[in-house]
Structure formats: structure tokens, C-alpha cells
Amino acid sequence: MRSCKEYRKIAWDILFKDLGKFFAYSLLCSVVISAVSGTGFGIFILGPFIVGMLLFYLRAIRGESLSFGALIEPILKNDFLRTIILYILKNLFIFLWSLLFIIPGIVKKYSYAMAEFIAIDNPSMDAETCIKESEKMMKGHKFKLFLLDLSFLGWYILGALALFIGAIFVQAYHNLAKAAFYNDLKSSAAVM
Fold first, then answer.
1. pLDDT tens digits, one per residue of 15-43
2. Of residues 113, 9, 31, the one with CA closest to residue 23
3. For 144-174, what is each residue's pLDDT tens digit?
4. What is the largest CA-CA distance in the chain?
5. Would you list the DSSP string of 46-112?
6. Do the Cβ atoms of 59 and 180 come closer than 8 Å?
7. 73 closest CA partner among 58, 63, 61
8. Backbone angle region of 125, left / alpha / beta, with phi > 0 → left and psi within -120 to 50 → alpha
9. Distance between CA 57 and CA 40 in Å, rounded?
């Protein structure tokens, strides 16, 4: 596994190859996900949009062609129900672990962090198996991902100070770094 600095460098280089496209996509994702979340039943339909958002960034890391249609691709490819179940189960499990105290919830959040990426790479895998595979994949790597997330804290503060416009860039930057982390983890993992 690479260092946090190396993942940020990979993400930074990709982000600045087409800054406008990443900004526009990140803004689109923010608007759509905020709108869906605000409907009151957002938890029941948010999953496909989260998976679609991450699909775009994973394709960018892999050097594949990018399309804003990735955001709704799980819906268009009849993956709507599986991604909804994945989102609900993942958040339900994290919530239940959090009831034991905050720390177990945080640990499980990182255990399940790669579930959406696994769902992208394995369209025939059911939601619960994606979560279990993420747990296996993240064994021994949770703290590394925590440190990667923590390394973006300053960027998010800076983005908030820039009237939240900067946070749009930071979101794209962070998602690219997480996609690079997953890509490396997948190539070294014995699962899947």
C-alpha cells in the first residue's frame, strides 16, 4: 500500500488534468445527493446515486472514459434495488454498531468503506456479500484509510472558508484518493 501522500498525489494529478469536468461533476453530485437526501425518504433512494458518484471517480483512476451519466448508471443498468439495499444495510449496520458506543461505529464505518466500490466491480454480487467482502478487504487497512480521510481535514476547512465553492473541489479530490486506495487494495487483496 502507498502512503497517504502518494494517494493524494495520484488524485491531485488526475484532478488537474480536467479540473473543470471534475468540478462540474462534483457540483452535480452535491446538488443531486442533497436534493434526494432532502426528500424525506432519501435513505431509500440515495444508494444508486452514491454508487454512481463513486463509479465516475473509479473510472478516472483507471484511466477509463468519463461521463456524467455515471451518476445515474446504477439506475439505467437495473442495479437500483441492489444499491438501495447496500446503502440501507451498510448504514443500518454502522448505526447498530454505534449504539455500543461511538468507537465501534467508526471502526465498522471503515470496515464497510469499500462496499460501494466492490458493488461496482461485481455487479452480480448481492449487497450483503459486498459488505462482507469490504470487511475482509479492509482487515489491517482501516487505520490507513482513516489517516487518508484525516489528511483531507485541512482541505475541507480551506474549502469551507472559500464560501464552500472550494469544498466542491475537495470532494472530488478526496473521492479520487479513496478510489485510488480501493484500486490498490483490490489488486493486493485475496478476496473477490
1. 999 999 999 999 999 999 999 988 878 88
2. 31
3. 999 999 999 999 999 888 877 889 999 999 9
4. 44
5. SHHHHHHHHHHHHHHHTT----GGGGGHHHHTT-HHHHHHHHHHHHHHHHHHHTT-HHHHHHHHHHT
6. no
7. 58
8. beta
9. 27
